[in-house]
UniProtKB/TrEMBL annotation, chain A:
It comes from Odobenus rosmarus divergens. Keywords: Cytoplasm, Endoplasmic reticulum, ER-Golgi transport, Golgi apparatus, Transport. One of its GO terms (cellular component) is Golgi apparatus. This is Trafficking protein particle complex subunit 2-like protein. It holds the Pfam family Sedlin_N. The gene is TRAPPC2L.
Length: 139, 662
């Protein structure tokens, strides 16, 4: 149901970015890039509270005409950004949260792999398959 | 025999056979023809009628042979049609060869076409059935062993090597790992050439870098990744061959032969090898290997990091960053398979699932339980082992710590406490060495969640270590029992600290001898005078009043023993360094013993013994003190190091925390 899924490292470079194959995938990359500013803004807004109290799920970052962008930050400042088609009627917040939770779980599984160096691009097949399951297929 | 030569019917397509293929085909043809000749009535009349003088293969044995190739009937029909046998009505050499080649093509997954003949193909494989003992088709290797294979291997040195290994392998064990091992008869030549070259390189490289562990593997595992199309046809054949030709021990596995993934089945021997490797990394088979340890180990296999990462992903079923024994075996097996050219599976094969592995190999599990009980019952034995392992962490001093001459039990406890301290220190230090697994294994319940293990263990261990240090120190203080109090001496005398008294006694004795106290009788006086002189000499006023107090009662005693004191005093002179305890004041110095008379000799002897005992005890105490002081200093150093590490860790944690200041 997501159109584009991205995992961005603490230093704001992408660890993993994947979108459904369309003619102009680059616009998704731009959207993700611009969403990083919004993420930082949200983090800073909550920043005065204790880290533990800060919620991981950031919610809707910004809506555009066609798409909505949701964000999620882990405690290690790794950001998950998801672009969802607006026409997809009423994806509820809970569903988005569950999708992010799945992403987070898969990400921790990737981290558990001792052959994975933090900061590398994510090439895990399990992660790929999980993301695929989340993404819609454009007919 | 070229196609031209055998081309009695020239309409057959041109057939190019390699040397090996020629030999194989000719042999098969000869068998079929021989069978035909043997069974005169078996062949159809047409065959007998056919071209006189030309050797033909009877349809019966040929059909058997074709069926032995395990191809579907439809394919066989196609083949017979294509090869022209149906057209001409018999199986001449040409037709036979064409048919064989087509069978090979079909087995390799290529379509049954004439064009396929132009490719160089592996030799066709045929399954032999026990009933057809007479008509021995197929698998000449298994019939003739190395003899038949040798002519095939003229072109391929690599395959020759492989053949030797395969022969040994057939002798030693049942090769379930390699599907090609079971019908090794016709080692495919062409397709294997690039792979076998790679394999030989692999072998040499693996031998270079890893002689011990991987060499054992090579005879076990035979190459190579067959073309994917053939993979499907092979497993059923393997199952049949397995059932047929291998030892009884394979039979229980027939029940599990539902799994069509023979390459992923671990044999007993492989399993033992994996378990040994596991034990070399982690002595407790029921515990796990940490990720970093496993990473170092598997990196030695020289596979690429993405591949290793994928193998880990497959084998670490619970994704906890550590490998239990079945997970480790699965990972090792996958690495072995990959090194020998098998493509990695998309998912973990069922035979490599941890539950399956644990169920299929109960013996190692039993060993695991044995080890568990062993480890539980004999923690002390492990600790010395841990000591050995920890030597490389520059804690050798602790291991070589001289045992003070004290109670044995206390020494053991001290050692245990020291080792525990080392383990705790290592845990705290977060060093990624194999030793880290040991403390985890040693102290923590492996059943607890592994993620919390590392976190919980550290604070727990810290408190534990502190108590153990204290206990050690306490125990260190206890063993040197205080010197036996002189019971026969005056009560107030016992309050004197004999240590302090002995040291100044030497100068005191001399000084004491010199001034005979004017006020008191000469002989017995020296004790009093000594006391008095001591009181004068020694600025320690604390003792002075006590001594003065002591001297007063002794003064009374002394006059009574005056006469005999002289000779006794001389006797006691050499005993100056040996204090006496009979009187508190007399115990002060050797000459003080002069105050005692003959009735005191027995007491004096006892007191001398006591003095000796005291002195030995003092010596022991001093040694113990030195030892403990050294221990203390070393522990202090380690404490400093641990503190530094802790500070470093806290810094890292601080850096990782999200910045809240804005």
């Amino acid at each position: 149901m997501a159109v584009c899924v991205a995992v961005i490292a603490k230093e704001n470079y992408p660890l993993y970015i994947r979108s459904i194959p369309t003619e102009n995938e680059l616009k998704f990359h731009y959207m993700v890039h611009t969403s990083l500013d919004v993420v930082d803004e949200k983090i800073s807004a909550m920043g005065k509270a204790l880290v533990d109290q800060r919620e991981l799920y950031l919610g809707l970052l910004y809506p555009t005409e066609d798409y909505k962008v949701y964000g999620y930050v882990t405690n290690s400042k790794v950001k998950f950004v998801m672009v969802v088609d607006s026409s997809n009627t009423a994806l509820r917040d809970n569903e988005i949260r569950s999708m992010f939770r799945k992403l987070h779980n898969s990400y921790t599984d990737v981290m558990c792999n001792p052959f994975y160096n933090p900061g590398d691009r994510i090439q895990s097949r399990a992660f790929d398959s999980m993301v695929t399951s989340m993404m819609i297929q454009v007919c | 025999m070229e196609a031209a030569a055998g081309g009695g019917c020239g309409s057959g397509p041109p057939l190019l056979l390699s040397e090996g293929e020629q030999q194989c085909y000719s042999e098969l043809f000869a068998r079929c023809a021989g069978a035909a000749g043997g069974g005169p009535g078996s062949g159809p009349p047409e065959a007998a009628r056919a071209v006189p003088g030309a050797v033909t293969a009877a349809a019966g044995p040929v059909a058997d042979l074709f069926r032995a190739s395990q191809l579907p009937a439809e394919t066989l029909h196609q083949i017979t049609e294509l090869c022209g046998a149906k057209r001409v009505g018999y199986f001449g050499p040409t037709q036979f060869y064409i048919a064989l080649k087509l069978i090979a093509a079909a087995q390799s997954g290529l379509p049954v076409r004439i064009e396929s003949l132009k490719c160089e193909l592996p030799l066709p494989r045929f399954m032999m059935s026990k009933t057809d003992a007479d008509t021995r088709f197929g698998n000449p290797a298994e019939l003739h062993g190395a003899k038949v294979q040798i002519p095939y291997l003229i072109t391929e040195k690599n395959t020759f090597k492989r053949m030797d290994d395969e022969d040994k392998q057939q002798e030693t064990q049942s090769p379930t790992m390699s599907p090609l091992a079971s019908p090794p008869s016709s080692p495919p030549h062409y397709q294997r050439v690039p792979l076998s070259h790679g394999y030989s390189k692999l072998r040499s490289s693996t031998e270079q870098m890893h002689p011990a562990p991987y060499e054992a593997r090579q005879p076990l595992v035979q190459p190579e990744g067959p073309s994917s199309g053939a993979a499907g046809a092979k497993p059923p054949r393997h199952q049949a061959s397995l059932i047929r030709s291998f030892s009884v021990e394979r039979e229980p596995h027939d029940n599990n032969s539902n799994y069509p993934d023979e390459p992923w089945r671990i044999t007993e021997e492989q399993r033992e090898y994996y378990v040994n490797q596991f034990r070399s990394l982690q002595p407790d088979p029921s515990s796990f290997i940490s990720g970093s340890v496993a990473k170092n180990f598997f990196t030695k296999s020289k596979l690429s990091i993405p591949e290793l990462s994928y193998i880990w992903e497959l084998s670490d079923a619970d994704c906890d960053g550590a490998l239990t024994l079945p997970e480790f075996c699965a990972a090792f097996h996958l690495i072995v398979a990959r090194k020998n050219g098998y493509p990695l599976p998309e998912g973990l094969p069922p035979t490599l699932q941890p539950e399956y592995l644990q169920a299929a190999f109960p013996k190692p599990k039993r060993e695991c339980t044995l080890f568990d009980s062993y480890s539980e019952s004999m923690p002390a034995n492990q600790q010395p082992r841990d000591l050995n392992r920890m030597e490389k962490l520059s804690i050798k001093d602790m291991a070589d710590f001289p045992v003070p001459a004290q109670d044995v039990t206390s020494d053991d406890k001290q050692e245990q406490n020291k080792t525990r301290l080392e383990q705790n220190k290592i845990r705290l230090a977060l060093k990624s060495t194999a030793d880290e697994a040991l403390p985890k294994d040693m102290s923590e319940d492996p059943a607890t969640s592994k993620d919390s293990n590392s976190l919980k263990a550290r604070p727990r261990s810290r408190s534990y270590s502190s108590t153990s240090i204290e206990e050690a120190m306490k125990r260190g203080e206890d063993p040197p029992t205080p010197p036996p109090r002189p019971q026969k001496t005056h009560s107030r005398a016992s309050s004197l600290d004999l240590n302090k008294v002995f040291q100044p006694s030497v100068p005191a004795t001399k000084s004491g001898l010199l001034p005979p106290p004017p006020a008191l009788p000469p002989r017995p006086c020296p004790s009093q005078s000594e006391q008095a002189s001591e009181a004068e000499i020694h600025p320690q006023l604390n003792r002075a009043p006590s001594q003065a107090a002591d001297s007063s009662p002794t003064k009374k005693d002394i006059p009574y023993s005056q006469p005999p004191s002289k000779p006794i005093r001389r006797k006691f002179r050499p005993e100056n360094p040996a204090p006496e305890n009979q009187e508190p004041s007399s115990t002060v110095g050797g000459p003080a013993s002069a105050a005692t008379g003959k009735p005191h000799t027995a007491v004096q002897k006892q007191s001398s013994k006591q003095k000796k005992a005291i002195q030995t005890a003092i010596r022991k105490n001093k040694e113990a003190n030195a030892v403990l002081a050294r221990l203390n200093s070393e522990l202090q150093q380690q404490l400093k190091e641990v503190h530094q590490e802790r500070i470093a860790l806290e810094n890292q944690l601080e850096q990782l925390r999200p910045v809240t200041v804005l």
